Description:
By secondary structure, the protein is an alpha/beta fold. It contains 16 helices and 11 strands. The chain has helices at 22-39, 72-78, 86-94, 109-113, 115-120, 131-134, 137-147, 159-162, 167-176, 190-199, 209-218, 227-230, 233-245, 272-279, 283-295, 357-374; strands spanning 11-18, 45-54, 57-60, 99-104, 123-126, 155-156, 181-187, 298-307, 312-321, 333-340, 348-353. The strands form 2 sheets. The protein has a 6-stranded mixed sheet with strand order 3-2-1-4-5-6. A 5-stranded antiparallel sheet has the order 9-8-7-10-11. Helix 1 packs across helix 16 and helix 10 (190-199) packs across helix 11. The longest helix is centred in the N-terminal third of the chain and has 18 residues, at 22-39. The radius of gyration is 22 Å and the shape is globular.
Amino acid sequence: MGPPDHQLATKRVYVAVIGAGGVGRCFLSQLQGLSSRLSNSTPPTHLSLILLSRSSSILYSEDFRGLPIASWEADLAASKQAHLPLPDIIDFLAAAPGKVVLVDNTSSQDVADEYPLFLQRGISVVTPNKKAFSGSYELWQDVFGAAGTRGGGLVFHESTVGAGLPVISTLTELLLTGDEVRRIEGVFSGTMSFLFNSFMPVGGGGGTFSAEVKKAKELGYTEPDPRDDLNGLDVARKLTILARLCGLPVSSPTSFPVQSLIPAALASVGSGEEFLEKLGEHDADMDALKREAAAEGKVVRFVGSIDVARQDVRVGLEKFDATHPIAALKGSDNIISFHTRRYGANPLIVQGSGAGGEVTAMGVTGDLLRVLQSVK
């Protein structure tokens, strides 16, 4: 028998949130529900929100008693507290009377650059921000070096690759349990998934490439300037993260072949609107590729792949048989296949929505739970 309920230790963990936009807003909603559930669990864990910051305002609990999560938006808008620079935020959080978790919902390089200092001060970090994990290899080493020191904080970043999909956690478990990961391949972009599933659906059909790009933008699947999706760099950043987790010292997302789908003549046009207006003038190449694939009984998809043994990482267009799982994707789903020694000829597949505020926030909330399960 275990100890009586009254003898079970109550845990209190302090939470700081930077970034209250799309993902941040969804996370704070999920945090409210999580806080309620955990406070009623056995033994209870109490989450205290002690700092909330966005670019224009900040709200923090100077006595660490916590801020009401339910009214965060109105309270933050009404806050008159002076904004704190990042070093002061680190000092404030390090003074909390218990374990602290920083949730960085931004895409800020400045915040990412400070992760090693947060971690060195015992502050754990969970984030969907790719900057620290796909940028400078030196920063990557500093982050995980700080997290590995005695008394250092923990770091989790599931949402940097698959939003709420368990991509990083699956890869980590494969590696830590001694499997040999030989190859990773898949569709890592919801935008590119939707675009090519529409451009060349299994069975034929689909419009011109420019028409499908315009449709994807109208439906909200692309960035305001679609070139930010079509240049392939978002996928390259995700591949950089996974390759580094596999032990490959990838220096940057531009250190391996990344196929851009931006016609050279349009790379420097002034705006996204002008780009879309002129993209139709360059449909011939993509139409030819579509006909060529169809003649082979295949479809074209935009994929990323890592061959671990050959240390080969690449992003670009590939042809797939209509029966291949990558060809059969629907909508904007992502799919990631792990080819390993244990899984043999049939890879372990993770598939589902890989973008959107709610699912991305779910990945962040899941990482928060991992920290809570690890801290004493």
